[in-house]
Amino acid sequence: MCSRLSTRLLNICISTYCKLQRLDKAESLIIDGIRVGVLPDVVTYNALVDAYCRFVGFDAAYDVIRRMQVAGIKPNRFTYNSLLAGASRQCQLSLSLDIFEEMLKLGISPDLWSYNTVMHCCFRLGKPDEAYGVFRNIILNNLCPDRTSFNTLLNGLCKTGYTNHALMLYRNLKRHGCELELITYNILINGLCKAGRLKAARWILKELGDSGYIPNAITYTTVLKCCFMCRRFEEALEVFWEMKSKGYTFDAFAYCTVAGAFAKKGRLKEANDCIEAMLKSGIAPDIVSYNTLMNIYCKVGKFEAVYELLDKIAKAGLECDNYTHTILIDGFCKSGNIQGAQRHLQLISSTGFSTNLAAFNSLLDGMYKAGHAKRAMNLFKLMKVKDEFTYSSLVHNLCKERKFRSASKLLLSCLKNGMNILKSAERAVIRGFRNSGFRRGARELQSKIRMAKFLR
């Protein structure tokens, strides 16, 4: 009895040292214990195996297992579960499967935790059939799958694209009266949303409400993102107001996404109110929030308010990104204030900010649309870096001026330099030749485009 008590005390001390990552002390304590006749058991070594897996590596953990065997102590299920957990934590998924195979060869019966870990690893390796085989073995070995088993299976099926199978499993669980958790609903809703199946996700959300569970902010935000991804703005706003009516708090992403949706639909007052509500709620705005608000102000021509926002960004210690300045330049161009756009571009260049290509492209397009074709061509020549949007914009605008030959030369030079150009720009030039009665020119251009692409 005294010896057993001493071993138990030794295990408590070893476990404490392992949690403190003092593995040298733990090893010394085992040696001291053996000297005074207190022998370690499988629990002692299991604590060491788990600690070495967490903090050192698998070679050191296997060295402990070899010492166990030399001491005449056989590794048990908990020993191998520690190895499985370590491999899974370090994303060594193939190693997890090898450890599981080794476990079976030694005649050690896995428990439910072992099966759940291996099933999760199979899914992460993109092996849904093997994962389902592991789930089947749980039942064949007379183990009762728990909530973790079903959640792992549902999550894996959704992530590997088997959302129909996940829905069938969910229906079977409901039919057999299994008590589902909120996380189960969230997993399924998230999987359906990522697959773009908004209708099914909203139906599961309704069933979640009927089940007695209260959907949390994660549930609603997932559906909200999916609505915007599917461009179902009205449904997104319904979800947003439902969240608001139930008193859920939003993060900056939710507010900015909804404000952006209002702005796209031309409901600028509501977009502005949404951002104001975010600021009043105490959420510290990030650069994305400021960019969203700046975009709204540009659309209504409130450029003084935009510059006030730039001051606020500086006072908040945030840095403007490329998108911030592009919004302002694009706003100036769309309002016809080309000089304002040029001044801002010069301003940010003089302050050392690396002016981005998108800003130049916005100014180039704005100049053409405002009728400043010559200034636009001068800007194009000054641009050191150009992309497909630069060329496409210029080609489109030359076509609008009915300068089809200039547009075709620019188009071909772009292709010969190894760059892509938008298909719409190609079609605009060819259509322009045809509509002007130059059908032969259109055919020649098509032939040259094909040749340029072939040579590239």
UniProtKB/TrEMBL annotation:
GO biological process terms, alphabetically, are:
chloroplast-nucleus signaling pathway; mitochondria-nucleus signaling pathway
Tell me the keywords, alphabetical order. Repeat
Pfam families reported for this sequence:
PPR (PF01535), PPR_2 (PF13041)
Q: Which InterPro entries match?
A: PPR_rpt (IPR002885), TPR-like_helical_dom_sf (IPR011990)
Q: What PANTHER family does the record tag this protein with?
A: PENTATRICOPEPTIDE REPEAT-CONTAINING PROTEIN GUN1, CHLOROPLASTIC, PPR_LONG DOMAIN-CONTAINING PROTEIN
Upper lineage is: Eukaryota, Viridiplantae, Streptophyta, Embryophyta, Tracheophyta
Q: Which organism is it from?
A: Beta vulgaris subsp. vulgaris
- Record Gene3D superfamilies: Tetratricopeptide repeat domain
PPR repeats span 41-75, 76-110, 111-145, 146-180, 181-215, 216-250, 251-285, 286-320, 321-355, 356-386, 387-421
Q: A GO CC term?
A: chloroplast
The similarity annotation says: Belongs to the PPR family. P subfamily.
> From what superkingdom does this record's organism come?
Eukaryota
**Name of the protein described by the UniProt record:** Pentacotripeptide-repeat region of PRORP domain-containing protein
